[in-house]
Amino acid sequence: MKKITIVLMAVIFAMAFTACAAQPAEESAQIANPWTEAADAQEVQDKTGIAMSVLPEDASDAEYSVMEENKTAQVAFHWKGDAYLYRGMPGKADGQTLAGLYGELEHIEEITPEDIPENGVQLSYTEGEMGYAVWYDAKKDATYVLVMTEGAERDKLLDAAYQIRLQA
Question: From CA 31, how far away is CA 39, in angstroms rounded?
Answer without folding.
Answer: 24
